[in-house]
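Q: What would this chain look like folded?
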Amino acid sequence: MDIDIDQDVCIGAGQCALAAPGVFTQDDDGYSTLLPGRENGVTDPMVREAARACPVSAITVRERTA
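A: My prediction, written as structure tokens:
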């Protein structure tokens, strides 16, 4: 699956990092970012829950097509 974080929308609530700490973290300014090496091909089942938990819908999750 592919994950996009709209940095212009993110408010740094941190709900994604709480829901899927193996995928998301927060940068030095408190905004969401992916952990290094997690940019593509993430299979963690909590990623979709993290996207749903975002209060401003800054995270988009798409299934990767061949």
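Residues 2-62 form a domain with the Alpha-Beta Plaits fold (CATH 3.30.70.20).
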